Amino acid sequence: MRRVRAATVTVLRGVLLGVVCGALLAPASAAAVSPSGPAAAYRTAPDAKPVHGAASSAEGPRLRPGTYTDTVSAGERKFYRVMLDDVSNAYVSAVLAPPPGSPVGATDGVRIALESADGEKCSVSNDVTFGSSTARPVADYATRRIGKGRECQAAGDYVYSVEWIGSGAGSGARDWPLELKYMTEPGVGDGAQTPAPSSWATRPADPVTGAAKGVDGGSGFNDAPAVGHGVWKDRLSPGESRFYKVPVEWGQQVFLDAEFAGTATGRAASVPDGLRLTLFNTGRGFVKNAATGYRGGPSEVSLGTAPAAFANRTSPRDDTGAMRFSGWYYVRVSLDQRIDTALPLTLRVGVEGDRVEGPAYTGDAVAAGFGLSDEDRAAAQAGRASSGSGTGNSALYKAVGYTGIGLGTALVLILAVWTLLARRSRGRHVRQPLPWEPRAH
Question: Distances in Å between the alpha carbon of 403 and those of 26, 28, 164, 383, 399?
Fold first, then answer.
């Protein structure tokens, strides 16, 4: 009997050690994608500073490069001040992120503008609207670009404004979250070569195939997980938007396919434009949008871009002009709130084209947020956030949670077996210590 019990102890020790090691060494990407719950609220940047825009352009708080939080209500216009130099391109973005489920109209949103102190517009004002009756985080930027013959070239104080627009279902909006981000792109040296692509493919050379990796999309720009070229799986609830970020080098194009599974019955109310796919650039500027209806069966929505090139910023086409950076590009996939069930998503990400040399910046573009580090590139292949890119580590947290559950279950089973053996041999042998208990010497 003692030999049997000794063997049992050895086996149990091996089981426990195997469970611990296996659970701790399992990669986060192996964690199963859990069913979606209600849409998550937009997660602001952990280092964002709260500010309060003023009702007068003369009194707005000053923004320096960084991220800020504020709120906006229907009928409001808020002003901020931005100090610009005379060598850097400036991008000041606004993310409007109403609480999930808030009533909105298609034309509700905000108008953003960057102007000189005497009212000269640095670029065309942009309207940031929802485009449907589903509340989702929406974003775009206002810019000041350095260039001969352009406006706002002098260094000095400039005015950035965010103004509520629309008169639809969102007209009762109160204190909806705003996230503002001010980024400065270094200038380029005199005579720097910035060639524009002369032509490009409108479809990927080959379909993106391979084993799909599970990934949990983020609530916005700050917690979006990195996804590289390949196939990714997630799940969206009605009314939910999920964000992912894709690394794009100079000379590369992005092709995206979002495939949604059908419902169990194959029947659902027809929802025009119920599935949306949107791309934003490194500065959170709008690049391109695609949408398709949903009727209960499998559905797909796709988009493709021009190659990333510095010279694209002079293009008359907005979607080409937005492909003006290398760095992270952000994908938003949205499910209309009128769709009555959660849907599995397969996201095919195609990043195509050879990496080419970028412009000769006069400063560190990567440090300013325009470009990619080696860590960023590695993160995109693993489907995780790099250390400097936000908090998109939900897959890791989920793996840790599963590890805890697995360890707890294993320990309960070990204790149950040990107790049974002890009861059978009670009274015939002296109790032996449990595998983790100290032995007497």
Answer: 9, 10, 47, 19, 6
**DSSP 8-state assignment for residue 424:** H
- Assess whether 107 and 242 both reside in one domain: no
Which has the closest alpha carbon to 386: 161, 189, 249, 225? Answer: 225
C-alpha to C-alpha distances, 215 to 182, 228, 295, 393, 394, nearest whole angstrom = 29, 12, 26, 10, 8
Distance between CA atoms of residues 339 and 268, nearest Å: 8
326 and 177 in a single domain? The answer is no
Please give the structure tokens belonging to residue 100.
């999930």
How distant, in Å, are the alpha carbons of 35, 227, 395 from that of 214? 12, 10, 8
Which amino acid is located at 384 in the chain? R
* Torsion-angle region of 31 (φ positive above 0: left; ψ -120 to 50: alpha; else: beta): beta
Q: Which domain holds residue 178?
A: 47-185
The residues pairing with 67 across neighbouring beta strands, listed in sequence order, are: 181
Residue 388 lies in a domain: yes
Q: Are residues 233 and 260 in the same domain?
A: yes
For residue 98, the domain's CATH number is 2.60.120.380
- Rounded-to-integer distance, Cα 432 and Cα 175, Å: 65
pTM: 0.80
The CA distance from 136 to 347, in Å, is: 19
Tell me the per-residue pLDDT of 371-423, one tens digit each, with 9 for 90 and over: 999 898 888 877 655 444 333 344 443 443 333 434 444 433 443 434 444 44
Per the CB < 8 A criterion, the answer to whether 307 and 252 are in contact is: yes
**134 token code pair:** 């589903």
* Same domain? 9 vs 111: no
Q: Does residue 101 contact residue 117 with C-beta atoms inside 8 Å?
A: no
Residues 17 and 98 in one domain: no
Write the burial class of residue 357 (CB in 10 Å: 0-12 exposed, 13-18 middle, 19+ buried): exposed
